[in-house]
# Entry
Amino acid sequence: MLVSDVIRQADILLEIVDARFPDETRNSAVEKEIRRAGKPFIIVLNKCDLVSKEKLVKARSRLSGTAPTVFVSGKDRYGTTMLRHRILEVVQASSIRDRDILVGCLGYPNTGKSSVINGVTGRHRAGTSSISGHTRGLQHVNAGSRIKFIDTPGVIPSDESDEIMQGVLGVKDATHLKDSIGVALKIIEMMCSENKVSLESFYKVGTEGQDACEVLGLIGLQNGFLKKKGEVDETRTAIRVINDWQRGQLIV
Ligand SMILES: Nc1nc2c(ncn2[C@@H]2O[C@H](COP(=O)(O)OP(=O)(O)OP(=O)(O)O)[C@@H](O)[C@H]2O)c(=O)[nH]1
Ligand SMILES: [Mg+2]
# Structure
């Protein structure tokens, strides 16, 4: 898929980012290309059900200098009616009379491009999966009321090679990560600093005065993930933490 083809075809572009990591999942090269083509775009902060309202409002005010920003949850359809209105408003639908409005959806892998499309259409028309790389090729999806989406495979910025971030952002699932323990420690560190109550209640462990390695050990113990000699199986515990994180069980 050529991003430039989608930009050329579309009347308006949606850049779908992960609301937990708006900066990390934006793609400045893609935004530049959209601007160069003179096309309007909206930044969609998806997965907003996994982030506190306070953080969302902060992210929106930071990003709104770049483009109109909306937050949605494709999964539970929050904000999708508003998104439909914003699309029609930004593209000035009245100036396109004789055909459907083509809306290109671009974004990092696994940010929920297909889920946002399904949220707006109200039907499961675009295939989704917790394993990134699900959408292949370009897919046109009719959303009614003159809107037609172009679903696309995710694009990773060319300079993104950090495996830990790829794990955190769900680009690679636990079975494809070389350093699953490193990724799990990063998730635990983030949770301990951003929302330790959610981590503590989900795993039923205390984190006070513990570092990330110790917390990983406590989670392993709590789940009975032990090796033959009785020590905690850290790899198995790490894979559990990564799966829970990537499946949206932990809220930051
Ligand atoms: N909690 C939550 N999970 C979501 C939301 N949107 C998508 N997901 C989950 O995120 C994962 C990826 O969703 P997709 O819609 O397939 O993402 P995508 O960007 O189309 O992925 P690729 O096509 O692989 O690039 C799936 O497990 C979805 O259930 C959301 O708003 N909230
Ligand atoms: Mg997809």
The chain has eleven helices and six strands. The chain has a mean pLDDT of 92. The longest strand covers residues 12-18. The two ends are 33 Å apart (CA to CA).
